[in-house]
Amino acid sequence: MKATKSIPFLPxxxxxxxxxxxxxxxxxxxxxxxxxxxxxxxxxxxxVQGGFDYSHDSGLYAGVWGSNVDFDEGVxxxxxxxxxxxxxxxxxxxxxxxxxGVIHYRYPxxxxxxxxxxxxxxxxxDAFSASINYSNDVFNADEDGIYYSLGYGRxxxxxxxxxxxxxxxxxFDNDLTGSGNPDSYTDWQLGVATTLAGLDLDLSYxxxxxxxxxxxxxxxxxxLVLTVSKSL
Length: 232
Fold this sequence. Notes:
This protein has about 230 residues and is mostly beta strands. The protein has one domain (about 10-230): Porin. Helices cover about 5% and strands about 55% of the residues. It contains two helices and 14 strands; from the N terminus they run H-E-E-E-E-E-E-E-E-E-E-E-E-E-H-E. It has helices at about 10-15, 210-215, and strands at about 20-30, 35, 40, 45-55, 60-70, 80-95, 95-105, 115-125, 130-135, 145-155, 160-170, 185-195, 200-210, 225-230. The strands form two sheets. Strands 1-4-5-6-7-8-9-10-11-12-13-14 form a twelve-stranded antiparallel β-barrel. Strands 2-3 form a two-stranded antiparallel sheet. The two termini are about 25 Å apart.
């Protein structure tokens, strides 16, 4: 299960291919809880995250992003790391941005086979964005899932602060957990961010509806999350 999209890494060998028309950037972050689509991925504990992005003037991009996770799959060697590989194409036409791509979620070092792949499309205009993500094998559970989301983000004048808001709806085609729980849930987020001493600070409130809590228990309850990040 994953966080928000800055999906980021590319091996050093990619950096060797960089030309005047390409760019490689990196990022690192420390967060009090790794929350993805309203659900904690680190068992409500801190997470260290980071990766690298490669982008080309043509609009093509690729990268890798990683984080520690804490899942209990009922096996002797549960997942403790997530590594996301991604690639896509982004462009802007008449003020409307578009991004289409694919992301592969990997969980190395575990006996449980959790790896899965998702396709996404997002559009943006001014401070607003909308996206749709689709997979026919969510969490490698032979489960179709579509995630719809709407977002808003804007700087507050010249204060140095920005605000963000997000609402998402995750629709599964079957009972994801096999326990008779709902096949879908809604999540939302409200946040404020600023930069201090060269570090990006973000304080966000996350929550899901009762269906989310039925599916994921305490991991889907309301929470405040502080994230400190740095672009490289």
